[in-house]
Amino acid sequence: MTGSIASAFLQLRASDPQRRIFTFVDDSGADRDSLTVEQLGQAAERVAGALSGWGFAPGDRAILVYPPSLDFIEAFLGCLAAGVIPVPVYPPNPFKLRKDLATFSAIAENAGARGILTTCAYDRSRSVAGVTTMFSRDTPSWPSLPWHRTDRLRDPAGPVDWHLPAGPDEPAFLQYTSGSTALPKGVIISHGNLVHEVAANAADLGLGPDTRGVFWVPQYHDLGLISVILSTIAGNSRTTLLSPLSFLQRPAVWFDVMSRVAATHTAAPNFAFELAVRKTTPEQRAGWDLRPLRAVMSAAEPIRQSTMDGFFTAFAGTGLTREAFFPAYGLAEHTVSVSMGGSAVLRLDRTALENGRAVPSEDPGAVTSVGCGRITKPDTTVRIVDPATGRPRGPDEVGEVWVDSPTKGIGYWGLPEQSRETFHARLADGYEDGRRYLRTGDLGFFHGDELFVTGRCKDLIIMCGRNLYPVDIEDSVRDCHPMVRPGGVAAFAVEVDGEEQLALFVEARRDRLSPTEVDEVIDAVRQRVYAEYQICCHAVVLGTAGLVRKTTSGKVRRLACRQAYLSGDIAKAPGTLRVAVQRPDLTEVT
User: Fold this and answer.
1) What is the pLDDT of residues 134-147, one digit of tens each?
2) Of 456, 475, 502, which residue is a domain's last?
3) Which range marks the domain in which residue 220 is found?
4) Fewer Cβ atoms within 10 A, N terminus or C terminus of the chain?
5) What's the CA gap between 134 and 328, in Å, rounded?
6) How far apart are CA 164 and CA 2, in angstroms?
7) Same-domain check for residues 375 and 435
8) What is the number of domains present in the chain?
9) pLDDT tens for residues 390-445?
10) Cα angle: 85, vertex 67, 302; to 5 degrees
């Protein structure tokens, strides 16, 4: 592949201009919009010409605020064509700004953006919302930046000279992290990062002109943007897109479209496969032909073996086979992927794992761990390191995942000290190998040549000298009572009298429960945790959907849950059904 995504696209434009490269479908799964390579090139040139007229220069940052659509792709490629650095963000709901605007404003300020790009429809919604809330005292304000509409632009007056980067380290765009543990930080992704990532994905997934991808993952998230959209722009797929809301409202639409277009590739986080089983019927599944699917990637959140067992059992009649299942692990700071193509499933001794060792076990209380794949990306080194000492750990020993490769991001925009700490870590004296590693913040181990990820360093709960992984506790609780909402559990630590204790947020399936039902759910949670871990829950907070704080990509924000609990705000929230706190004498107060 050539030196940038833009140059790869120009080669594709010269060789196959009439290829239909993107299709966007509506909520019913019917085609709504499409783009050929040439149409996308012309649209990008309109955006590039407009950016110059609006005063943007190469290196300036533009915030991209787009509902799911092909307009986003045109704007992103237009920024690359102009040398402007795009900053894709989750589009705040103009009528509910209090929820999203703080993060949006922090991103705009940190990026030093010159302006905001959007569609006519979104800008009108923003204006209408401004009028309806103008007399509300507590409505937050948008950042003082100009807004520019990109979906109804005139053709440029003359030919557009596409910007080609001066070198591989030139910033291509800013990828703001999902913020599962803190406010988002802007990862500087270079043109060289993108070239290496897209080439590695194509090799690992067998992408090419015959690839037909169907995806609903968010366009502003690294998986959807790089592994799907930019890979397609580089010529690696013919891609059909749908809105995440279309999938969430009717999961069957995902499979309707895949069956109709004979999709070969798709991707989704773990929760999507659970939702697909619950929200589709045997009659619907009988009508789908998924035999062409070669790769079903699972990424962006922990992979549960029970989820995949249930999914492949339910979908067996569609012709989909387990060989297509493709677990992967990655993070924004590494452009996207670290490991690909997981295949191993381990049953591990729980006590040994709590003490930092992965020991196979067939004990009924053993922990199941799904492998995230091998390290296949060229010139990549991954080490498992003791996060406190910087010393490498051995095989089957748990430590922090450190990685160095050509797709390691340049650093965090405007945060030099955090960049040094995160992107330029060295092994301890006596173990130095000359590399500067990215500290992922994730815990994991190698079993053979396969990487297993066990949790986040910052989320680890340490009680009585044991290392407890929140995701394992959450998995234990999720089926302890029929009223517990799937995906609606968060485990985190709180300090009580100088010691760490366990607290849980648990969402109920219904908005209203009787006092007896509330008692039953809380008791079931406590009993399950004690039975599996021999520890007592200090606090169980039961509430309705939305109690568990999550990122825009669906990851549990355990630190945000902890902060909400400690602030006392959660006790006053309208969706909270009960806050049950255990006293040292094991009596409960509510």
Assistant:
1) 556 667 789 999 99
2) 456
3) 5-149+165-326
4) C
5) 46
6) 11
7) yes
8) 3
9) 999 999 999 999 999 999 999 999 999 999 999 999 999 999 999 999 999 999 99
10) 85
